[in-house]
Amino acid sequence: MLALALGGCASLGPPRVISQAMPAGDSAFGRSVQRQASAYDGRSGFRLLPNSNEAFRARAELIRNAQSSIDLQYYIVHDGLSTRALLQELLLAADRGVRVRILLDDTTSDDLEDAMGTMAAHPNIQIRVFNPLQLGRSTGVTRAVGRLFNLSLQHRRMHNKLFLVDNSMAIVGGRNLGDEYFDAEPNLNFTDIDLLGVGPVAEQLGHSFDQYWNSALSRPINDFFYFQPDADDLRASRQRLEAWLADAKIKRKALYERLMAYQTHPRLDVWRNELIWAHNQALWDAPSKVLARDEPDPQLLLTQQLAPQMNSVQHELILISAYFVPGETGLLYLTSRADAGVSVDLLTNSLEATDVPAVHGGYAPYRKALLEHGVKLHELRRQPGEPSSGRLHHFGGSSDSSLHSKAIVFDRQKTFIGSFNFDPRSVLWNTEVGVLVDSPELAEYTRDLAVQGMAPALSYQPRLQDGQLVWVTEDNGQLHTLTTEPGGLWRRFNAWISKAVGLEQML
């Protein structure tokens, strides 16, 4: 009976079809980007997207401009108004002949498998899941049991976030797809940084997507259905989607109008005139990283590609990492940089702001050693929401905010932005993607965002006072010192238990 339950609805489909990113020159949109980039001698154009509204608008407008291909790669997709609006745009793009490939980590599909399978009934939409659970997909209980039976592989996930259109424009960064990433969730807004890349960098990222898409670890979503959705199912699903959005237009009028502003006031052409053109390197983990029996071969890792830059920093290192667990290796690296005279600043979540208190439990034991060597720590406070979310800066919104950004600035010269957190999970277990940009101008913009978040009014600054940790912060224009770490009892317990049971390597 257990075997039958674990079998769920899994079935073997036909052999996977290999496909590649379409050349940028296959569309008029792609050719216009090629012409724009041709004046910059192999450099790519970049623009930061630190504002939730702009981050959503950029994705929606890229879909609207797509003429040949759209490739999406995501760790999480959550249902909501922003997601449904993007899905409608994807369906319309597919209607006009655009090839849509969607690659999702399998954990995404727990509650959305039927909906995704129905979308894949469109002749121009293909959906694959990465590192799929082979057994027990039919219910939440059997999924949990199935993952326990193969925990060594199932805890290794595809954490990449990539949005690629016509192989000529791409978005990388920390945002998944869901209302909480675009300030459209009433209870939580993840403040984040995305990077819009135009020109050659998009082609580089296209190679990254193809490696994952064509990997043996990626399976068509329809392989896991006994009954394949057909055109009638797709038609009915689209009618429900349109009715849902029409209802949201009335019941959530202000939010709907804010998100849908791209339809009447597009900004992509304006942004194309504001690009910073610079040399870059797209970096990503090899998808086979997840197959390692123990720690993966360093040659497969994004961190190995980033190591030359990490080791050559001489003056200033700024880290923004929503989830920060340095481990002994990271501790040695950061303290050795600080001991060598490098100014090292870290911005991460405070206990009260993090959405994963267990990760804070992995970070907290390292604070004293980091501070003793001169590393400066800044823990972002939970930012209360404001009625207006039209602000242009990075922190805050209409909902309470928690840091979700991942970025590194080297010597005010180079910037790395992607999906990578400074923790064991990003280094060893999950796969990641990002872009290293050689531009003082972009580095200064990113640094300014970090400095803004490090301000005492927005962050707690842990310090050592008579050998004990205290937290300096600012309220109503006055600095004051806390001797007890801010955060509720339940958060403290979660942080403590992760430390007590030795979860650090899994965080």
UniProtKB/TrEMBL annotation:
PANTHER family cross-referenced by the UniProt entry: CARDIOLIPIN SYNTHASE, CARDIOLIPIN SYNTHASE C
Entry protein name: Phospholipase D family protein
Record CDD domains: PLDc_ymdC_like_1, PLDc_ymdC_like_2
Residue ranges annotated for the PLD phosphodiesterase domain, each copy included: 154-181, 399-426
One Pfam family recorded for the sequence: PLDc_2
Gene3D superfamilies (alphabetical): Endonuclease Chain A
Residue ranges of coiled coil: none
Top-level taxon in the UniProt lineage: Bacteria
PROSITE patterns attached to this UniProt entry: PLD
Transmembrane segment boundaries: none
